Structure formats: C-alpha cells, structure tokens
Amino acid sequence: MQRQLPLPIVVFGNGGHGEIRDGMRARGNVPAAVDLPPADLPALARAHGGHGTRACDPAAPARALSEALDRPGPTLITVPEETP
C-alpha cells in the first residue's frame, strides 16, 4: 500500500479447504471441518486501503487483472471455484 504499486492478487475460493475436502472424499471419508462460512475477501482488502473485486463469469478474471494493473495499489480478485 505504501508504494501504491499495481499488484493484482488472485484468490480462488472453494468454500473452505477444498484440497483437503477432495482428499477425504477420495479416501471414502465423509468430509468434516473443511467447509467454512464465506469470507468477503474483497471487503477485507478495501478495509486495509486496497481494492477488492469478484470475478464470477468467464471473462471477468481477465478484465479484473487488466483493471488492477491500471490502478495504484494492490487489488485482491476472488474467483469462485465450482465445488461438487
């Protein structure tokens, strides 16, 4: 934030600990303690003085990255993953 450098940060959201959840399912276990309540990460980025956005459709990530590189300061971009 201090240097106001354009820095896009992309976070893929899978509703919790997706890799652990998938591993549990692969072993035949019932997933436990891996689904988390949704966190508003773009709001958290804005609360710290940055920018935040969600990229929910297929064209949105490229658009959000382009916009992030054109504005000063970091931008957190969340991209939701589909979870079974």
3D architecture notes:
- The chain is of the alpha/beta class and 84 residues long.
- It is 31% helix and 21% strand.
- The chain has 3 helices and 3 strands, in the order βααβαβ.
- The chain has helices spanning 18-26, 41-47, 60-69; strands at 7-13, 51-54, 74-80.
- It is elongated and about 45 Å long.
- The mean pLDDT is 91.
Give the low-pLDDT segments. none
Shape: elongated
Numbering strands along the chain, what is their spatial order in the largest sheet? 1-3-2
Topology, number of strands: 3
Order of helices and strands: EHHEHE
Radius of gyration: 15 Å
Q: Distance between the terminal alpha carbons, to the nearest Å?
A: 37 Å
